[in-house]
Task: structure prediction
Amino acid sequence: MIEIRNIIKSFDGIQVLDNISARFEEGQTNLIIGQSGSGKTVLLKCILGLHEVDSGNVMYDDRDLTRMNEKTRKSLRQEIGMVFQGGALFDSLTVEENVRFPLDMFTYQSSKEKQHRVDFCLDHVNIKGAHQLHPSEISGGMQKRVAIARAIVLNPKYLFCDEPTSGLDPETATRIDTLIQEITREFKITTLINTHDLNSVMEIGELVLFISEGKKCWEGSKEDLLTSPNAELNKFIFANKLYAHFRGKTS
Amino acid sequence: MKFFFHVGRYFNMLHRVFGRPERLRIYIRQLFHEIDGLGVNSVGIVVIISLFIGGIMTIQFAYSMSNPIYPTTLVGLGTRDTLILEFSSTMLALIMAGKIGSNITSEIGSMKVTEQIDSLEVMGVNSASYLILPKIIAVVFIFPFLFILSVFCGLLGGLFTGPLVGVISVTNYLEGIQYLFEPYYVTFSLIKSLFFGFLVASVPAYFGYYVQGGALEVGKASTKAVVNTNILILLFDLILTRLLLT
Result:
């Protein structure tokens, strides 16, 4: 479980996050939704500790990230898996080396054990025959799947995904969404996904947090999402539906 | 104020760079990779530039000492001392700042803008240390060898070119490069090359590590890194010459 309490964050005097509190449950796909520039990625990076918060607390199962020293924070980070928007795979390493990297860095397993774990994770995300290729030689969808494999290789307790379906075609996007949901349920991890794609929300969202202009506007289940009277949320949903309608017409 | 901000952030980065490595074996593997990529791959350009500059300097020395009152051995002596004292240490460092420095800034900068550095941080890896420390050690280690290679190739360039264009005989040139040899000059330049190696790796790494934006900013950071490294090399050249040679 991850809980954020009264998070405030500013950059150069401009407030980007304004007093956001929420609770993200274990074994569920928790979604942070909002328009581009609403502060989703900043919130995610604050939760990860990549940005220091101005005030507020980030609790990982009763452990407060904001009060941790560097050493404790490092050990917590080994319980975290992260899928970045662009995949963030290391260009100089092959697909297999990318997935093995956290194992090389933080475990004392034998080469055979590491290979077994890498093969298991790559099989899990359905990557076959691309183990020796470099990230530049595989498609965007495959890069995202390799990034997911790398994120789960250390058996994380918490999985973060920043816009995991952005830039992907609808079919691949659905496949990635389903994969994340399956992994969340199978390994009982706390998953937190940033997205502005309503399809993803309806596909895999269990608990949804909607933020607009750095403020928490709405929180609830996906079932309540479409019936909510919240004006900001409805504007966001309408824009998404309109986009989907025109995309449907053009494709 | 901006100057002090950058100086402070540079030393803050160095503090992180020299932090305890997570897994020494991986750092050593990275070190060999960097020695190959940044050092061994620079040998070709060092050889070519030094051969030509050695040859050109010999011709120019011979031209400026064409008066019969100067002994011809001074041509070899002048070429040797200029190569050891200034060209093979300082000028080569300026050239390497362009080649190695821009390479380091663009590599680290690209990793920054594509979130690969964030990815390392999220894993719990000290990204500054993992990415920059092997580069600094590799460049500091390889620079003295490049200096020695450059001096050797420069003298060789003079040996080929001088007699070829008829400005000096082989015997006079060889006599000149051995005449009044001061071994301390080599020590002095080796010390300089260690400092310059550190600057050539760490300053561009700083510009790459803190770049923000996209490909355009990475390009701008590369240019800034090369310019600032060159200025710092010249500044340190002045300081070290004052401290060690006079």
